[in-house]
Design a protein that fits this description.
- The complex is a heterodimer of chains A (about 375) and B (about 300).
- By secondary structure, chain A is of the alpha+beta class.
- Chain A has two domains: about 220 residues, Rossmann fold; about 120 residues, OB fold (Dihydrolipoamide Acetyltransferase, E2P).
- Chain A has a six-stranded mixed beta sheet with strand order 6-7-8-3-9-10, sandwiched between helices. Chain A has a five-stranded antiparallel beta sheet with strand order 13-12-11-14-20.
- Chain B has two domains: about 240 residues, MetI-like fold; about 55 residues, no CATH class.
- Helices cover about 70% and strands about 0% of the residues of chain B.
- Chain B has 17 helices and no strands.
- In chain B, helix 4 packs across helix 13.
- The chains are: A alpha+beta (about 375), B mainly alpha (about 300).
Amino acid sequence: MAHITIQDVRKSYAKTEVVHGVSLEVQSGEFVVILGPSGCGKSTLLRMIAGLESISSGEILIAGKVVNDLEPHQRGCAMVFQNYALYPHMTVADNIGYGLKVAGLPLAARNAKVAAVAASVGLTEFLDRRPGQLSGGQRQRVAMARAIVREPAVFLFDEPLSNLDAKLRVQMRHEIRRIHNQISATSVFVTHDQAEGMTLADRLVVMNKGVIEQVGTPEEIYHAPASVYVGGFIGSPAMNFMGGMVSPNQACVALENGSRIEIPQALATAHAGQLVQIGLRPEALSLVPAGMGAFDATFDFFEELGPTRLYHFQFEDLMIAALASDKPPVQVGQPMGLKIAPEAVHLFAADTGKRLEATQKAAQPVMV
Amino acid sequence: MIERTPILNIATHAILVFGLLFLLLPMYLVIVAASHSLQDVVAVPPNLLPGDQLWINLQAAWAKGHLGERFVTTFVVAIGVMTGKIVLSCITAFGIVFFDHRLKMPIFWLIFITLMLPLEVRIVPTYAVAANAFLPFQTLLDLSGITWVINALSGVEVKLEWNLLNSYAGLIMPLVATATGTFLYRQFFLTIPEELVEAAKMDGAGPLRFLWDVLIPLSRTNIAALATIMFVYAWNQYLWPLLVVTDQSYAMIAVELSRLVPKFSATGGEVPKWHIAMAGTLIVMLPPIVVVVAMQRWFVRGLINTDK
């Protein structure tokens, strides 16, 4: 049980800064997923919490105590590594119990704990095997058991599922969530897989290029992405973007070719005349006959997904994707209308890429 | 081998068999010569089949060369070199690979350069150091003027001396201080994944604990390979023991063997006792062969590094 406070933490290698002043609060017992593409600094941040990387500036507190200068094992963290990092020459039991052995726990107590934890992750019959004799999923379990057995206050996961095949990944995802609910340690989970992030997280942290783009529940992040980056990163298939200008009179965004996409009146009034990027989720678009929708696009091809189909359209020089369940109503190369509800349109400032809200002006500091 | 044709197979096997015969022939001749009486050995044409005098010749060689005593000396030195080498190269490679410090690469290259300077090349300075292991320090003191200062102040003449001639330390230490083992260990340690090091850190294992609990068990095959090489290397040492040892009780077996091989000038025109010399050779060869055969499985695995 420990909350984590990260205050303006930076990390530089020689002259290159890779984490640019990150601040984050993780509540006790919370499951936080840090999501971002490779090289965004998410693993570095996790490793700074663990104590495997030094902190260039800023502070990290675990349970209210500054841990900047503490050794990894003094921080009360346990970590599950991407490649499991099991000791190849030790049996499963020795792997799980090694931390306890180093801590000087007597053999009998150690064995009892190892047996209990192994049972909880279904490894009892494998205790005498070496890691080399286990499958990927079993190794993953050993890595988890090794972390659990130390009864950590903070559980750190560094892309633990990325070496597993798709089916096993989903299964282990459930298992991780189950274990979290059982032991209720504070968990920080790093991944580049948005499905993992969305499904596991109590709160999701989206990182890009060494800064946090957005923090929120998976629902908030999906429905109200804070920037073009988050909008494009979260959601599969990815959000469609188009450039245009807000025209308050008709409550719409005028695209360059003259098409108009309706948006709520309040939003249009708040940002009248502004150059914007609009974000349209493929699942929010519906197909209508040409001329009936907000804009017309040329049907290119579609992908069969089973329950739905993913349609691809050509619009000006953009590719537009739309999810729909009906059969292709027109031939390839024919125009089709695309329609979207005004509330489903995401609006971002063209220059900063930040999300625009109707009430945003009010949130800004008032000059006296 | 990618190509698989019968002709190529036959050709490669022929080359292998030829190589084997080429290597085994001298050994065979040693055995033949060691199993005949003096007259038969020097007979023309030479005998190419083993005789019946082997046991008698072995006994004669054993007694004449004091091989019993030499065996003890040589075993002590070989085991000493082997152990010292394993320990030294393990900890130096550990320091070079797992710790980040500014002198890491310079130190590695300094060690590496010694590969180009084997004992035979630097035998004179090494002898000087062995004659007085404190010589480098004495030189430093003399050059820096400290000797003079101490002498002027207290009237005491500083003369450091630690003579390693005619001692096991003198025989062993110069043979231990070489780069081969360090290099072998370094290459192995570099294959250890970084995450394993980090996992040990998370488990709270300090560097020495990690070395003992993880690295050493993982490098068992490397240790076996290095032990084999070093044992044979030390066992066969000739030049250094010849130089550093004048007291016969420290003489090593290869040096003794050279004394069994008769020099014409020393025999005073007598026919050289080749059969005894060859019998001695057989005895001296035996321990390295036993070690290599016993360790062969580990040895090969250690050098090709597949035990992971």
